């Protein structure tokens, strides 16, 4: 935002113009009312005519004053109010150039409002980013997951495309925290988040941290085989990083278990059911000794059985 060159305030200019008009009007009225050399033509005029001419001069001065007020105050203020109203309605357009380039109080006020609105907009964007992202890892959180799946799930059903979810759980993470300390645990989670980013790079891939040591990945248009290949790639990549974990019974380094659930094309699944299916596959990983990937197919029969088990 460029600073406004603040010259003579508008109200001072108005006072100067109004005083000039008043002085000219009073001079003309005095000249009409008295027999002066400058008004020889009115010497023989009757009093009513002189009064009429005086009234016309007053009206002309009043009209000039009103026009000046409209041009200098009323119209710019109306444009400024309209700009603020548009901003309130979500229009991010800049204020009119005629307002921004004014060298008076209205121009200064316009630029100040624009600066405040820009600052407020940036702060709102930062707040929104904070509410949608996990502060530790920078991945999305549960709110971002629900927001994106609200659009992705119906779209996937209409396109009759498969949908896969990967529930990722860090093996023996509590033991890791107890042995190495919580700061080291946070660094471990950040490293796992980086491996997830390196593995799932598509713009449509949804990678979030659900909380603690649990992560969830949702893959649109990805079938079971491809989802398992990506899960194993992520698991192997993390194991190759080689973060030491002396207290793990699965491996001497940090590892993860991944439950993979793939919904067949057209399956009417919601967020909660998707997470529940991936979580069920994850429990099978833990039963097998962890540090592995287990897959499952989600169809209507499986969803119906899950609903019956919860009732």
TrEMBL record:
Gene3D superfamilies: 3.30.70.270, 6.10.340.10
InterPro entries the UniProt entry points to: Diguanylate_Cyclase, GGDEF_dom, Nucleotide_cyclase, Rev_trsase/Diguanyl_cyclase
Statement: the UniProt record of this protein carries the keyword Transmembrane: yes
Catalytic activity: 2 GTP = 3',3'-c-di-GMP + 2 diphosphate
GGDEF domain location: 161-298
Entry keyword set: Membrane, Transmembrane, Transmembrane helix
PROSITE patterns: GGDEF, PROKAR_LIPOPROTEIN
Matches recorded under Pfam families: GGDEF (PF00990)
Residues that span the membrane, as ranges: 47-69
Superkingdom of the source species: Bacteria
EC code: 2.7.7.65
NCBIfam families with a match to the protein in the record: GGDEF
Protein name in the entry: diguanylate cyclase
């Amino acid at each position: 935002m460029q600073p406004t060159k603040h010259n003579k305030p508008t109200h001072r200019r108005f006072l100067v113009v109004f005083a000039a008009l008043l002085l000219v009007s009073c001079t003309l009225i005095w000249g009409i009312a008295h027999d002066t050399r400058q008004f020889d033509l009115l010497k023989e005029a009757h009093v009513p005519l002189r009064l009429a001419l005086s009234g016309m001069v007053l009206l002309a001065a009043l009209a000039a004053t009103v026009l000046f007020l409209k041009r200098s105050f009323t119209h710019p203020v109306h444009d400024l109010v309209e700009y603020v109203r548009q901003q309130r309605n979500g229009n991010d357009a800049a204020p009119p150039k005629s307002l921004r380039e004014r060298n008076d109080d209205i121009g200064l006020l316009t630029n100040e409002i624009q600066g405040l609105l820009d600052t407020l907009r940036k702060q709102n964007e930062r707040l929104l980013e904070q509410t949608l992202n996990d502060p530790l890892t920078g991945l999305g959180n549960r709110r971002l997951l629900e927001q994106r799946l609200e659009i992705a799930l119906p779209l996937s059903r209409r396109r009759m495309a498969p949908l896969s979810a990967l529930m990722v759980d860090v093996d023996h993470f509590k033991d890791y925290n107890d042995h190495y300390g919580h700061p080291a645990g946070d660094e471990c989670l950040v490293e796992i988040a980086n491996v997830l980013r390196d593995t799932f790079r598509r713009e449509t891939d949804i990678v979030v941290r659900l909380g603690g040591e649990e992560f969830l990945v949702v893959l649109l248009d990805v079938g079971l085989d491809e989802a398992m290949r990506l899960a194993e790639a992520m698991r192997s990549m993390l194991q190759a990083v080689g973060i030491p974990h002396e207290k793990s019974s699965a491996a001497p380094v940090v590892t993860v278990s991944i439950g993979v659930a793939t919904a067949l094309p057209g399956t009417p699944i919601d967020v909660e059911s998707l997470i529940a299916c991936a979580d069920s596959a994850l429990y099978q990983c833990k039963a097998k000794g962890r540090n592995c990937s287990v897959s499952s197919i989600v169809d209507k029969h499986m969803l119906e059985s899950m609903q019956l088990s919860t009732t």
